Amino acid sequence: MSTGAIRDLDRLLARMHPSLHPGRYVFTTLPRGQAIDPTSIVASIREAEGLSVVVTETDALALGLPMAFTAAWITLEVHSDLAAVGLTAAFSQALAKAGIGCNVIAGTIHDHLFVPFDQANDAMAVLHGLQGHAAA
To answer: Domain 9-135, what fold?
Structure first.
């Protein structure tokens, strides 16, 4: 377990501190042979169909990339243990009840949520509510 990582679900929820990044982010798959500056990639995963990346909308437009999903990026600032159980289920269920879709990317230290851009403020309210309920 990483130093400082939290595994307990109640503590994770009480300390998750969602933080909304400025800007618009896009999910896209790079066409074969498409070059991209690695520093412009927010996240990536290799799939059979190609390299799926998350980049800023500005970068996607500049590179002429197809935009599959435009999102707001929320980071849960709690240091979550990668073996923790229930955090993703808790916030995804709360967001689903509010009618907000969510794509999650787990980093080594934090969870990163990508929600429809026009629902960013609603998502933040739901997450703050979940955190407040857990802290009570």
So the answer is: VC0802-like (3.30.2130)
